[in-house]
Specification:
Layout (H helix, E strand, L loop, with lengths): L6 E6 L7 H8 L5 E8 L6 E9 L2 H9 L4 E2 L2 E2 L1 E4 L1
Antiparallel strand pairs: 1-3, 1-6, 2-3, 4-5
């Protein structure tokens, strides 16, 4: 049975207009996504400005790292391994 290398990324500085769908839409160009989640405040329902994206392969991570800046809905987002 093949082992799966799951790559989980922290994505910060998200605009408040970005939800799960928009986050997934941006990162799908880099590879197949397992999950894309924006973290929301439970009381207000507003985005906390960060989220997580998970991929199954290293190729997606390499493509993301090769692109120096990532612009999503007018804001440069920060991406780090989680």
């Amino acid at each position: 049975m093949a082992t799966v290398n799951r790559i989980k990324l922290f994505v910060g500085n998200l605009p408040w207009t970005v939800g799960h769908k928009e986050l997934r839409g941006y990162f799908k160009e880099f590879g197949r996504i397992n999950s894309a989640t924006v973290i929301f405040d439970r009381k207000t329902g507003l985005s906390k400005g960060y989220g997580f994206v998970q991929f199954n392969n290293l190729t997606a991570l390499q493509k993301i790292e090769a692109q120096q800046k990532h612009l999503l809905e007018g804001s440069y987002i920060n991406i780090q391994k989680a």
